[in-house]
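TOPIC: backbone geometry
CONTENTS: sequence, structure tokens:
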Amino acid sequence: MRPISWHIGKAIGKLVGGKANSTDRKAPNQQVASVEWRMVNPIPEAAGKADFGEICGVNLGTCRYFLSGEKRVPILTGSKLSTVMIDCVALSSIVEEARRVEPSIPSRLDVWFDDAKFATAEIAGKTKTGRSPKYPLTISVDISSPRYEPVDYTAWIQACLDAGHELPKPEQGDDSLIAHIRYLPDGTVGAADVYMWSGACGYHVAAGGGDGQLHLTMVERKLRDDNNFVVTYSVIPGSVGGVTKDERREKLAGLGVDVRQFTTAKVSDDAAWVIEEFLSGVGVDLLSAHIDLDFSNPTKSGKAPKNVAIAQFSASPKKGAPLSGKVTIDIKYLKDGSMNMADIEFERKGITLIIAIRKSADGYAPTWVCMETDDMRGDLFSSQTRNVDARRAIAKALKRMQ
């Protein structure tokens, strides 16, 4: 869905006879109507009130609630919010400790719980085995930079049209903070997580309880160029993630993974086999192949992950071949060096054939076949499809792409 500013810009372009987002302005003597803005209320719209009783020492009697599916989620404000804010404030020192071990956390990302206007409560039910949950209650506090919207969208759009350009909006930040506080049955805090975002960078600070106090247990970060969160501090030995490819490789080697077996030559051979096995007859220039090989971080518990290596193989169309196209294959490898899965994309004439390959007891088999263009997608086969052969679906798709 395009933002409303896009539609406004397009409309302005049509009305003033120029391009969208035109900078043409009205004559100085023509005044533009002022636009009134209001801060967006972050509190979820209540669906009703209910008495949830007292859980883990937190009074949830006669609380407003909103619906998440069919589940009623209590909303804490006023005096009920004040009682849980005491536990939230204790997280401030945890975040400060995290900043000392992870200096990249911006100083402006302080735990500003004074700005909290509400909190929500998640009441856990029995486990699948019928036991009481370890944390019967989780309190969540979501604090983001203020957001604004026009009091009257019609008036704002008309004012933009009168001005001949989109009018400036109130400054809106991009910082946010979300805290989850998990209570033990006796009312003490057993664990907590704080997620902080500033632009494209995110940070996760985890704390665990012990002796009635919270202690820093883990810090994760995701910088602008990172694909996933990386553990940079942990009380669990060996679980700190490597920031560079070489660091990740060394950590897996220390966990007993034979990382020497994962080479670009191996990836090239495996990709060639995948193409021959599942895209037989397509024209791909294997000599043009570009290969990216990387290694996974250990799990948060310090163990080797299931997929220890990740590779991407891409090759250009083979000139003169009757069914030539670009091929991209994402491969994930197990500890023993075998492929666990391969996701194929074959592009030709604006159409992309997508094939998901997974390892099974009998070898490798397609679990999903799909064709897509810029504006449509159609599934040809999935693991739930009946009376359809995956390889016949692939052959049918390739015939359409000739």
Remarks:
- Residues 1-30 have pLDDT under 50 and may be disordered.
- Residues 78-101 form the longest helix (24 residues).
- The radius of gyration is 28 Å.
- The helical segments are 4-16, 78-101, 153-163, 245-254, 264-278, 390-400.
